[in-house]
Amino acid sequence: MKVRVNAAHIIGHLQAPPSKSHMQRVVAAALLSNQKTTISHPGYSNDCKSALSIAEQLGAQIKKNNNSLEITGEQKQIQKTLDCGEAGLGIRMFSAIAALHDKEITLTGSGSLLNRPMDFFEQSFPSFGVICHTNNGKLPIQVKGPMQAATATINGQLSSQYLTGLLMALPVTDGDSILHVTQLKSKPYIDLTLAVLKDFGINITHNSYETFHIKGKQSYRGREVEIEGDWSGASFPLVAAAIGGSIKMSSLNTNSKQADRLILNAITLAGAKVSVDNKFVTVSKNQLNAFDFDATDCPDLFPPLMVLASQCNGETKIKGVSRLYHKESNRALVLRDEFSKMGVQIRLENDFMIIDGQKILKHTNIDAHNDHRIAMAACIISAVGSIEVEITGAESVAKSYPEFYNDMKKIGYQITVLEK
């Protein structure tokens, strides 16, 4: 799909979309429980739909209501092939859960997920008694358990998502496990995993994220859960306000374990007006100046941070570029190459993205490269001087934020569909 976007002034109130990070973890925990879990404010982005589909294929019973859904994780009738769509967390988390079974299960996906590295499964699963094969380090993956308790060393440099899968699966094995984790990235996402596990009655301890102690024979308990607002998705309208107006957003928990809550720190560093109360996060435009920010543990913030930095006076440095090479696109290069078309000056030096701000921007076409966060960044930047941006691959936002364009219309963006 191709759309044309422009905006004159940003103002309004939005409810943050449901967090796909929280939702997928809750679905996995509900699957592992033999009791009923009721989820309010559920997410239905493509990644969340994939998680629900996988849970059903692994035997869960799912009932959708008006504003909630119920999951009963019976795990009786199990499908031999699981389709994870384009969900990076889904493939890494549910591979470990699938490996709890003594049947051979194949996990596959689509789109950019087909090109993401998966060789760490073959390297690590044998330590837990799991037979595993990949397609030369890529999808599909075949796993055959049952997974066994073990002491093992896990490299967390590429992604914390594989560790999340092990933390989900190992508590229900017959023995105690110890995981020694090296070079762990995105620690806040592990905090989110541990928080969800605790909510479902699972206790795991760790020493500075380097050694995780996991008791076996634990039982997941079904419960009532409200899905948090998504800081990743919210970061785009919040930055839109910082560069082009003012908005209030509800359903955001400033004490959340989500890594991307740090967007407020960056917006504050840049000089925009930020206020927080019990109901709303409010961001308003102000004089913006360059800032330094470490996004190593929150790499999904790079696209909105790039937009924010493009309107700051001076040179902004954002650390963590190495985390961008295996996203839905090679996000570092796509950000640099696509947004240079409109006049944004971006350099990549070692592990830094350096943005020279306050340049005159021009109308252009941005190819989202099937990357939802590139499409969202291309949309919000049009608030700068009412420039007109055409976005090819605009439909990619459905991966994480299916209501994105409707929400943008509510706060002042004009969006025209040019091609379906």
At a glance:
The protein is 29% helix and 27% strand. The protein is built from twelve helices and 24 strands.
- Specify Rg, calculated over alpha carbons: 21 Å
Question: What is the overall silhouette?
Answer: globular
State the separation between the terminal residues, measured CA to CA: 4 Å
Q: The biggest beta sheet, please?
A: 4 strands, mixed
User: How many DSSP-defined strands?
Assistant: 24
Question: Helical percent range?
Answer: 25-40%
Poorly predicted runs are none
Percentage of residues in DSSP E strands: 25-35%
Mean pLDDT: 95
Side by side, the strands of the main sheet go 22-23-1-24
Structural class: alpha/beta
Instruction: Please work out how many helical segments DSSP would assign.
Output: 12
Account of the protein in words:
The protein is α/β, with parallel strands linked by helices and about 425 residues long. About 30% of the residues lie in helices and about 25% in strands. The chain contains twelve helices and 24 strands. It has helices at about 20-30, 45-55, 90-100, 120-125, 160-170, 185-200, 230-245, 265-270, 300-310, 330-340, 370-380, 405-410; strands at about 1-5, 10-15, 35-40, 60-65, 70, 80-85, 105-110, 130-135, 140-145, 150-155, 175-180, 205, 210-215, 225, 245-250, 275, 280-285, 290-295, 315-320, 345-350, 350-355, 365, 390, 415-420. Strands 22-23-1-24 form a four-stranded mixed β-sheet. Strands 2-15-17-16 form a four-stranded mixed β-sheet, covered by helices on one side. Helix 1 packs parallel to helix 3 and helix 1 packs across helix 6 (about 185-200). The longest helix has 14 residues, at about 230-245. The protein is globular and about 60 Å long. The model has no long low-confidence stretch (mean pLDDT about 95).
